[in-house]
Amino acid sequence: MSAPGRLPRWADLGLLPIVSLLAALAASAAIIAIVGESPWVALRLMAAGAFGSQEAAGYTLYYATNFIFTGLAVAVAFHAGLFNIGCEGQAYVGGLGVGLVCLGLDHHWPFWAILPVAMCAAAGFGAAWAFIPAWLQARRGSHIVITTIMFNFIASALMTYLLVEVLIKPGQQSPETREFASAACLPSLSALLGRLGLNVSASPLNLAFLFALAAAAFVWVFIWHTRWGYELRTVGQNPSAAVYAGISPPRMMLIAMLLSGALAGGLGLNEVMGVQHRLLLDFPGGAGFVGIAVALMGRNHPVGIFLAAVLFGALYQGGSQLSFDLPRINRDMVVVIQGLVILACGALENLFRTPLAALFARWRHPGEGE
Amino acid sequence: METYTLIVLLLAATLRVATPLLLAALAGMFSERSGVIDLGLEGKMLGAAFAAAAVSAVTGSAWAGLAAGVLTSVALALLIGFACITHRGNQVVAAMAVNIMVAGLGPSLALAWFHLGGQTPQLDAPGQRFVEIVWPWAERARETPFPGLLYAELLSGHSLVVYLAAALVPAGAWVLYRTRFGLRLRAVGENPAAVDTAGISVNGLRYQAVLISGMLCGVAGTYLSTAASSGFVRDMTAGKGYLALAALIFGKWRPYPTLGACLLFAFTDALATRLQGVALPLVGVIPVQFILALPYVLTVLLLAGFVGKAVAPKAIGVPYAKEQ
Amino acid sequence: MSAVRTDPPAASASPVRDTPPALELRGIDKRFGPVHANRGVSFAIARGTVHGIVGENGAGKSTLMNIVYGFHRADAGEVWVHGRRVDLLRPHDAIAAGIGMVHQHFMLVDNFTVLENVVLGVEGGRRLADGLARARAELERIARDYGLAVPLDAVVEHLPVGLQQRVEILKALYRRAEILILDEPTAVLTPQETDQLFRMLARLREQGKTVILVTHKLREIMAVTDRVTVLRQGAVVHETATRETSERTLAEKMVGRAVSLQVEKTPARPGGVLLAVQDLEVRDRFGVTRVRRASFELRAGEILGIAGVAGNGQSELLEALAGILTPSRGEIVFKGAALVRGGLGPRARRRLGLAHVPEDRLRMGTVAAFSAQANAILGYHDQPAYNRGGLLRGTAIQAGCARKMRDYDVRPPDPGLRLSAFSGGNQQKLVLAREIDCDPQVLLVGQPTRGVDIGAVEFIHRRLVRLRDAGKALLLVSVELDEILGLADRILVMFNGEIVGEVASADATEGKLGLMMAGVKEESV
Prior knowledge:
The structure holds 3 protein chains of 3 kinds.
Chain A: H1 9-35, H2 39-51, H3 54-79, H4 87-105, H5 111-140, H6 144-166, H7 189-195, H8 208-225, H9 227-237, H10 239-244, H11 249-276, H12 287-297, H13 302-325, H14 332-347, H15 349-364
Chain B: H1 3-33, H2 41-59, H3 62-86, H4 91-114, E1 132-133, H5 138-141, H6 145-155, E2 158-159, H7 160-178, H8 180-190, H9 192-197, H10 202-228, H11 240-250, H12 255-275, E3 279-280, E4 284-285, H13 288-303
Antiparallel strand pairs in B: 1-2, 3-4
Chain C: H1 2-6, E1 23-32, E2 35-45, E3 50-55, H2 61-68, E4 76-81, E5 84-86, H3 91-96, E6 99-102, H4 114-119, H5 128-146, H6 161-174, E7 179-183, H7 191-206, E8 210-215, H8 218-224, E9 227-232, E10 235-241, H9 247-255, E11 273-283, E12 289-299, E13 303-307, H10 314-322, E14 329-334, E15 337-338, H11 346-352, E16 354-357, H12 361-365, H13 372-375, E17 387-388, E18 391-392, H14 394-407, H15 424-437, E19 442-446, H16 454-469, E20 473-477, H17 481-487, E21 490-495, E22 498-504, H18 510-517
Parallel strand pairs in C: 3-8, 3-9, 6-7, 7-8, 13-20, 13-21, 16-19, 19-20
Antiparallel strand pairs in C: 1-2, 1-4, 4-5, 9-10, 11-12, 11-14, 14-15, 17-18, 21-22
Helix pairs in contact in C: 15-16
């Protein structure tokens, strides 16, 4: 049979990603063994490092916040049939928007007034950076994969220029802005819960995490329960059918990419306003690319994306723990695992799908030989 | 130093910067002409750079390093091939996966094996690097600005890989346009079904193409860590793979225009290095980031059809599956 | 299987000859997952004959031929060529065994020259130049012998389809094919080009080649073949010498029961003009003019048929009427509204009461990965019945789909099932249900029965006539002359983008339409 087999829905959404993930983790274990450490010890250390304490779990969810935003961004574009590799740049520029708002308003406005402006800036700047590749794809037919990659580099050059030449705090060597006043900082979740009388240890986890959850819920409703989501998916699955139905594919592509860029910009809230409280070089730190892994593993569904984001948050947090405790491992190991997960869940899907489908076929029609 | 000397030195630097770009772009040409998107140039180069530096450091032989670099890059190419050709996976996803994996794997293995915080040891013993080949009388020629300086700086004084890359352009063009393999390669990137029904294996051809791409990327990566610098450092390709891909698109998937694009992009890079902090008449100091971003902006403009039009091979990015 | 060769000539046996058959299939069996595409297919084809293979869509003709060409591998069974058993694992093996195939969709590299296309795979050496020179000489000889002149240095994409097909035949002959398979070769040809092709096939037969013609057009079978094999549901159900059978017999064998090729309907009672097309000109996205100054009117209570060979502008006309293509000049007036000047797109036209069943339901009319219920609202998803303030009304959508499935006998009646899991006929019925359900004044229908089993064809035809009788106007585009003749009350013929004539259905004959489809104007017919 030439086409890969069909799986029941639950297996397609649940079993297949788990099998792929296990394969990726097995390959990672092999690499850890090659490096000369015990994969089992590494796994225990990582689990402890990621969830072993309230603080550790806070760090894990703080990383996950970034990955939810970028994972959703990649997924929304995917549903419209677009591969947005530019989340890294969109998040970077989105953060610039947040930073500019905070730098401009932090000494003048109160927090509750700055927050909505900063949110709009995050979404708006991220969307604007996605708009150009989207427009070029929709109207001029340029390949969005290539243009978004180019825009990552252009964003990086732009931000370096701004931080080195323009926004740098005077009299300082490292390319960073000044720190924001407290009116422009998102409260940490431990502070918020403290106000409710709950005592949680401090971590970078902040209000942006709740925004990320809200964004996930919004994406779920938007994609599957609104006519715009229906139109967007139609364009992604069959552009000719969309035209036939009176839906304009270029318009939906623009909408999808604007939404995607806006979601990626959400990362700026978490990093710039929530944790760093200033603009600095390369704060997205590759989260845009993790978003690809998260979206692929989460099957482009918000629930899956949340779970995958937490998993990657745990990998990042646990991985940094690992590099403290095991001398032969550094944080780059997490990047290796990330690559392997993308490979197994995204590119090698059919490797697992075909045998699984055969297994299901045999299970359903016992006795029917070849 | 007067302007003439500056320009000659700038051009010489351009050649050195262009070499890995050109090798990678030619690699991409073979792969993409067969219908396989080659976003993996970055990862294959980086993997080769690490393997070459590591093996050269251990064995003391740059040639052993080259062998390791090529083998590593070919292995990565085959991995992408396995995912995209055999299992018809998404080519963009597979390549991104390899790029990300290698970005982590190099420093991880370097830390475990050399304990230098993710780098390989400095290659400073003789034979560990591909050194510049000085042509006869180059030092004497340097004394006469024209044509002596041109001879000494542009023709002489490059490592073997630079000359190899230059030779590969006509060689690549010959293979692509004048051989049976080239005909089939171009055909499979346009209409794989036609190739299949003509009794030729589509997958076989595409594997050959990614294999060639792997070898060329291997040479490019080796050049980075054992000729252009002396050892592997984290993320040392720094986007050169993507830049090479941009050059390939800019060159419309053809060998000579691709050479031109590589030289142009390399020139902007060399220029940016030269112009760092230098005030020019009339315009003042040009921020170096703007010059560095120029190749990317140019590629975007080209893709958008504002400067010429690049038409990709028709079947690019589409996994080949027989219809029922 | 030895019985096949020892029996005296009977309906089910191949002719006895001294030489072994050119091609003999023994018990070919093939499954694609749950689909049993070929069931123990056995028959033999004598050397130097033209052999027809007929069957409905999905009867397994193409699968069988792809197995013979080594494109697919049979699960069981043997293929014998000229008395020798051959293992066909890939096309290469079939080519080596002397089998050539002209696919329905040409297997040509568009931006290569004819010469490059012909030599692809048999270049004759690692360096191109030598092989190309030799090939040129050889091809010129073949072209002389078979009367197959083609400009060797022309780039294929610049050639008309008739010539492209010739390149495909040249490819096979250059590879020294003794057996030539043609899969639906006339789908894209005018009647005149078809005649040319058939003369070419006759010449090949004279030269001792064996030709296998795969088609669903019975007229062609009767015209050129010596013997014919009928496939139904993957199995051989009938085999006979062509002169001993008739179109009607073949049709019945194809379907497995008596069929009415005639659609039962009363004369039309046309009412007022519903849709008026004036001076319409349509260009495709490459700027090529595909419809030239078309003008006509469509009245309530009639079916207006548009006949023509595929690719003569009917598709573009249909899409322009539906609002998918924007005409470069001219006007379409519907219920008093100027659709072109008003810039009304598909959505607005649907709201006005202009529905459209597209020619290619999988490419345009449906989304294969969506469920049936999501497909049942395509184009109508913005209407109040299905969404409120932008939020989709899940229950209403599901109930609406279930009702449509009941009314149009869509099986299985499961709104949640993916569209790709339905058969072609059931997909088409769902599309039809969706477009008729909103009670349109005008229905544009393209190829309503393409890839649909005969049972569903009758159902669809009856529904279209019923819609006409309810006073709606139908515009029917079909490349199947029989369908046009059976359904339409008036027939317009298109050739090269122009409407070359109009015929009342009572006066229409195949011969008359055929000439007009080839561009001969009405007056001279």
